[in-house]
């Protein structure tokens, strides 16, 4: 019980039914090694947690990022709910440390295994959902996963213009695209980069940004706008 209370403090949620937390932390290897205790594993919880996670993330993206098209929303969600992202979030809340693992899994590094951590994270989401309802599950997900959520969304947005330009050029003539940093100003903590993009050695656009990546995206955006104008003439 002491370890359960300790973990409740770490995750910021106190269970009304502690058995739900125990179930979320019970890996199948532990349940199999302790069959006489008639323990269940967290596998069924994973199934429910996956569904709860998907609806919360989908709702968040839809509500907070009206600029994203359906395909971009799908890509962002896929990056957020992927195994590596969930395992990362699990490690941030020390989930592996509190899992009930079988001896074999313990000896082979199960507490840091990506698949085990990601599955357990989904199980934990489900247990919170069952214990406290959707509002508590949503609060937990958005709190513990916020850096991953915004990082994935920013990645989709930043890739968008470059991807669109690449696809457009490949579709039309497949010419070479090149990004070139023209300027870099300001102190290290507040730099501004200027980048130009060339297609077949012809300058098609330029853009500024707080990072090289951002300036490249803005240059690609400018190139897309120019190409769209030229195509309409």
Structural topology:
Blueprint: H1 2-11, H2 18-25, H3 28-33, H4 43-64, H5 70-80, H6 83-92, H7 95-98, H8 103-107, H9 114-132, H10 134-144, H11 146-172, E1 177-185, E2 192-199, E3 202-209, H12 212-232
Antiparallel strand pairs: 1-2, 2-3
Helix pairs in contact: 2-9, 4-5, 4-9, 4-10, 5-11, 6-9, 9-10, 11-12
Can you describe what's shown?
The protein is mainly alpha-helical. 66% of the residues lie in helices and 11% in strands. The protein has helices spanning 2-11, 18-25, 28-33, 43-64, 70-80, 83-92, 95-98, 103-107, 114-132, 134-144, 146-172, 212-232, and strands at 177-185, 192-199, 202-209. A 3-stranded antiparallel β-sheet has the order 1-2-3, with helices on one face. Helix 5 (70-80) packs across helix 11 (146-172). It starts with a helix and ends with a helix. The relative contact order is 0.11.
Overall SS class: mainly alpha
Judging from the principal axes of the Cα atoms, what is the shape?
elongated
Radius of gyration, whole Å: 23 Å
How many helices?
Answer: 12
Question: Summarize this, please?
Answer:
This protein has helices at residues 2-11, 18-25, 28-33, 43-64, 70-80, 83-92, 95-98, 103-107, 114-132, 134-144, 146-172, 212-232; strands spanning 177-185, 192-199, 202-209. By secondary structure, it is mainly α. It has a three-stranded antiparallel β-sheet with strand order 1-2-3, with helices on one face.
